[in-house]
Amino acid sequence: MTGTHFLIVLLVAALINTTFYIFARKKLGIPKPPWWYKPVNSTQGLLEIIMLILLGFSVLRFPPEIMLIFFLFLTSCFRTFMEWKYKREEKQYVHYLFGAVLFLVVFIYMCIFF
């Protein structure tokens, strides 16, 4: 996969994700999150750090582009579950769920075409 094509795919995904987030905030009344993501509890923070360390090791073995998208997919799934389980009233999990589905689509696209 060329770097330019990967960058275009990421920019399109970011644009779609941002557009959905703006729409969802207005439609569902999702409050604006803080600038930096704060984990729901310490377990979530610890597991996300472990996933980041595993990403660092897996990049040495597998293609970095695919591992990055896979990591973003797993992180979005994990955040969706934690937000849904512990902060359901804020509805922030809807945004993370959309991000997880979007990263899954990008991951499948990359696996098929590259």
Q: How would you sum up the major sheet?
A: none
Rg, Å, rounded: 15 Å
Order of helices and strands: HHHH
How many helix segments? 4
Low-pLDDT ranges: none
Sheet-strand content, in percent, reads: under 5%
Strand count: 0
Distance between the termini: 6 Å
Pairing-aware structural class of the strands and helices?
Answer: mainly alpha
Q: Give the oligomer, counting copies of the same chain as homo and different chains as hetero.
A: single chain
Helix percentage range: over 70%
Walk me through this protein's architecture:
By secondary structure, the protein is mostly helical. It has one domain. The protein has four helices and no strands. It has helices at 3-28, 42-61, 64-86, 93-113. It is globular and about 40 Å long. The mean pLDDT is 92.
Overview features:
114 residues, 4 helices, globular
Short description:
The protein contains four helices and no strands. The protein has helices spanning about 5-30, 40-60, 65-85, 95-114.
Layout of helices and strands:
Blueprint lengths: L2 H26 L13 H20 L2 H23 L6 H21 L1
Helix pairs in contact: 1-4, 2-3, 3-4
Keywords: Membrane, Transmembrane, Transmembrane helix
Pfam family, one: DUF4181
Protein name: DUF4181 domain-containing protein
